[in-house]
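Below is how a single chain appears once it has passed through the pipeline. First comes the sequence as given, then the structure the pipeline wrote out for it. We keep one example in the README because the format questions we get most often are answered faster by looking than by reading.
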Amino acid sequence: MEEEEEEAAAPRRRQLPDSNARYRDRSFWNSRYQDEGVAPVEWFGGLERFREQLEAELSPGDRILVLGCGNSALSYNLFQLGYTDITSIDYSPICIASVQDRYAHCPGLHWAVMDARALTFVDGSFDVVLEKGTLDSMMVEETDPWNVSSESRMLLDQVLTEVSRVLRPGGRFISITFAQPHFRKRHYAQPAYGWSVRHTTYGSGFHYFIYVMRKGEELSPSDLALGQSLHLPPQTPPPVRYLQDPDSENFLSAIDL
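Resulting structure:
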């Protein structure tokens, strides 16, 4: 893990899009992975920054699905810790071909080109679904955290519906993000997904958030009310801005979701 994380921490020139909308564009990611390769690059830091909180939610033998794996070393790092049944998906075929080659020596790591909005796995396939920054990249065009567009709400709902479907009863969906609870938690706290929601944090100075949704548990009354607020008429509070950690991409400072 140390070798991978040292490589992940090394500075490199990143291909940045001409607009935030390109972060939703498959062609942008194909081009970026083609130009930069798949040497690990970590949004929100590598595993060691949140290992204690994450491992508290994992069990030996868990079947794990990683959404939007990109060129993060997270799947490999978990494999090194003894989690040996990990399926990682990304919608960039260039990315998946590269990581398949890079980690061909790890028989417990499985890779697939797939869109998180339309997973091809059968119901109840996984004990854990994990994402780090994938949902954030889907919301890059949003600039008002209080009033999320119907397009982004629908996009997240498509992904979360699929996540709930492929989780077994008692399974956990773990979402790692910079989005604060009063903005992001309301998206997760929808009764239709059939899970409870809680969160913890990591980081110093600027905090990142780890949301844990457990399938088969009920939402608390306060979370249920928060989820209902997502469907209320638009609010007009003043915009909010937060300092960003140095390892964040430039686009992250433009949104607060």
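DSSP finds nine helices and seven strands in the chain.

See the next section for the split statistics.
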